[in-house]
């Protein structure tokens, strides 16, 4: 029996328009890429990876600045049948050492300026190949790929084979690699293509204004797969700049952002109904969208933001409706479970709660990941006996089926759309000289939605300085993880069981 190739790249490539010389991507610096450019460049990069004699399932770890070439490397990795491992550009040496040591990538790609220290970490961990790739289209990766043929047969993959690993920090401080398969990512992209009404060229054609980073699910999978699977053009911004976004809005039809981006756009006087007139859809995710932002956007632009909910382990789970016939877009909610996704809210005893009651959100569907890399026990812990994934989020479903996220069971802080796990940050603080213990909590912030605050207790007889603690953290951690404020106190509040009362700290420091 012949099985069809379930390689995600094969599906994306099949959606390219018939005219390969048509425009596919335009950058904010004026570079133009045709669909043929995407076809040829991914073939050459895939051939380069294929020439390295890598083992089956080899991981390709990538920490580079955003560029179209970085996107092409992702697509080439899929095309060649390997596993893509994107890493946040803000990660520092301690974090990179862990990821490289844990994932054991066969190939690491980094920027020229980080090559010295990253190559040392990589070679020490047994990585065979380290290439460089810079945002200005230079580096050894492209130089080596230039000598490769520009035709390549897409590697055969089954739907349950790995396509990517996305690291999502554990609340114990130990990062977990969520294993996403070709089937996970393709099923989610196909559902969203229909649910969000992506239009192909013969339907008028969408244009995605891409201003997100491409090292996590939102920018790399949700945005890019949506555009490619509908043969849509992209306007590519290497960095988010509110003035540039507003300037480009009249040329686009779809925009995706985290709430922080919408807050910053609203601060620009140039954001008007006229510049947004041509837009079809504004989507928000990765963090809660404040109702004030939701309403302000409606008033300023005449558009209602579509909020959705997803995770590294699941890609998208729910979405507010796109079409009015399917329901209203309700501010403060993340909408309805997507077609094919089962979502339930249970109490701590594992029983379903009534509509409107708060409980633990659990999901099941073709989008749900395969498990955590090298962590079978952790994987088993996070799934129920009947196959539902425990998201760790706390929420409720109303009588109409709309889901509202009310909190996170594990004290996750989402700052500017990035996940910050307090236990990880606390681990670094507690290692600093003179620190007895610490607690990190999230407090509301007008721009980032939420920011971390560190509350630190000194060892007896030691005088700690808040500013020095933050300076030490900035040298160790990605900037988005570093608390915005630090307070040195005599003791942390505890309950009768001796557990730190983070709810008390949140209330105390929110002001």
Largest sheet: 9 strands, mixed
Distance between the termini: 65 Å
Mean pLDDT: 94
Lateral strand order in the biggest sheet? 2-1-10-9-11-12-13-14-15
Quote the beta fraction.
25-35%
The low-confidence parts are none
Structural class: alpha/beta
Q: Helix count?
A: 15
Shape: globular
Q: Care to count the β-strands? A: 25
Roughly how many Å is the radius of gyration?
23 Å
Report the helical percentage: 25-40%
Give a written overview of the molecule:
There is one protein chain. This protein has 511 residues and is α/β, with parallel strands linked by helices. 29% of the residues lie in helices and 25% in strands. Helix 4 runs parallel beside helix 5 (115-124) and helix 7 packs across helix 8. The longest helix is centred in the first third of the chain and has 17 residues, at 35-51. It is globular and about 70 Å long. The model has no long low-confidence stretch (mean pLDDT 94).
Architecture blueprint of SSEs:
Layout: H1 8-14, E1 23-27, E2 32-34, H2 35-51, E3 59-63, H3 68-80, E4 83-86, H4 93-103, E5 107-110, H5 115-124, E6 129-132, H6 140-145, E7 162-169, E8 175-181, H7 182-195, E9 207-210, H8 217-229, E10 233-236, H9 242-248, E11 254-257, H10 259-266, E12 281-284, H11 291-301, E13 306-311, E14 315-319, E15 336-337, E16 342-346, E17 359-364, E18 371-372, H12 376-381, E19 389-397, E20 403-408, E21 413-415, E22 418-420, H13 422-430, E23 435-445, E24 449-458, H14 466-474, E25 485-489, H15 502-510
Parallel strand pairs: 1-10, 3-4, 3-5, 5-6, 9-10, 9-11, 11-12, 12-13, 24-25
Antiparallel strand pairs: 1-2, 7-8, 8-18, 13-14, 14-15, 16-17, 17-19, 19-20, 21-22, 23-24
